[in-house]
Amino acid sequence: MLKVVVCVSGGGTNLQAIIDSIKSGELENTEIVEVISNNAGAYALERAKLAGIKGKCVSPKDYENREQFNEAFLAELKASGADLIVLAGFLVVIPEIVIKEYRGKIINIHPSLIPSFCGTGYYGLKVHEAALERGVKITGATVHYVDEGTDTGPIIMQKAVEVMEGDTPKILQQRVMEQAEWIILPKSIGMIAKGAK
């Protein structure tokens, strides 16, 4: 059984997609052991509670310095017994000590087709704003392994999504979530659970 910790900062729609895939039996041999958020008010923690999953807030704001937070974050991950850490809209830079400890065991979902619109400063709606500004006809989402860079780790899976006439960043964000993110994130976890990647 693949033990997964999902880290999320906001609403947790990708978390919900994973929960639903496990519930439907589509995502096999996988269990979410904990949801960690850096934001005590994140709806993702409520989603975890509703699904009977342990939820915890570990926020840099609650520690004197970043080093203390990094150590607390690592300690929480270790205590969970996680085999895989899934970053599903987690707006915290992953500390190097965590990357070292969990090398090849941390994945992230990014709302573009990497290498487009990725790296420092590209997150959330900003990605979709940039895609529309550039006038791309195709965008999408990418699941990749996490390394020391920002969105630079090996790609596991990508899915393209069409940009439509009249799209706003919000409309495009929703379409990318529905047509790509919510599909490829559970699929990627499933591949890892099967030992395929």
Total number of strands: 7
Instruction: Summarize model confidence as the mean pLDDT.
Output: 96
Helix content: 25-40%
Q: Mind telling me the C-alpha Rg?
A: 16 Å
Q: Which oligomeric state applies? A: single chain
- Sheet-strand content, in percent, reads 15-25%
Strand order of the largest sheet: 3-2-1-4-5-6-7
End-to-end separation in angstroms reads 15 Å
**Largest sheet, strands/sense/barrel:** 7 strands, mixed
Topology:
Layout: E1 2-7, H1 13-24, E2 30-37, H2 43-50, E3 55-57, H3 66-80, E4 84-87, H4 96-101, E5 106-110, H5 125-134, E6 138-145, E7 155-162, H6 169-193
Parallel strand pairs: 1-2, 1-4, 2-3, 4-5
Antiparallel strand pairs: 5-6, 6-7
Helix pairs in contact: 1-6, 5-6
Would you kindly provide a written description of the structure presented here, covering whatever features stand out?
The structure is a single chain. This protein has helices at 13-24, 43-50, 66-80, 96-101, 125-134, 169-193, and strands at 2-7, 30-37, 55-57, 84-87, 106-110, 138-145, 155-162. The two termini are 15 Å apart. The protein has a seven-stranded mixed sheet with strand order 3-2-1-4-5-6-7, covered by helices on one side. It is globular and about 45 Å long. It is of the alpha/beta class and 197 residues long. The mean pLDDT is 96.
Concise account of the structure shown:
With 197 residues, the chain is an alpha/beta fold. Helices cover 39% and strands 21% of the residues.
Can you tag this structure with a few keywords?
single chain; 197 residues; alpha/beta; seven-stranded mixed sheet; 6 helices; 7 strands; globular
